[in-house]
Specification:
By secondary structure, the protein is mainly beta. It is built from two helices and eight strands. The relative contact order is 0.30.
Length: about 130
């Protein structure tokens, strides 16, 4: 299985560690989930740091915490039909590719679902 290059808007399968899980002392997320890459930073030492936001079925406590993922986008990515939100109130950052990337459970031999459409692919590439 070849790993994709990190790109803004790419949705990957990742063991996302929620802040609440981190506060309980966990070091790894309980569940693998789709996460979108929103920031890519080339570090001075040559590593690539990636920041991801999680996609979840749990409705946000506040509309300012998440953006609903359109049904058409979910279908194109091969996700289920249940309502989902891209959480923008917390992130995970890791060195690419990192041990928490997971193969997509559909058995496609991939680690990614595809890309969010450009209006949702708000992110940044930072060098240095």
């Amino acid at each position: 299985m070849a790993l994709p290059a990190p790109e803004l808007g790419l949705v990957v399968s990742y063991a996302y560690l929620w802040h609440s899980e981190y506060q309980l002392g966990r070091e790894e997320g309980v569940k693998d989930r789709p996460c979108a890459i929103v920031l890519i930073k080339r570090e001075v030492d040559g590593d690539t740091s990636v920041t991801v936001v999680p996609i979840t079925h749990v409705p946000p406590a506040s509309s300012e915490d998440a953006v609903e993922l359109p049904a058409a986008t979910k279908r194109r990515l091969g996700l289920d039909e249940a309502q989902s939100w891209v959480v923008i109130s917390e992130v995970n950052e890791f060195i690419w590719p990192g041990p928490d990337l997971r193969p997509v459970s559909r058995g496609r031999g991939r680690f990614d679902y595809g890309f969010l459409p450009p209006p949702h692919s708000i992110g940044r590439y930072v060098s240095g």
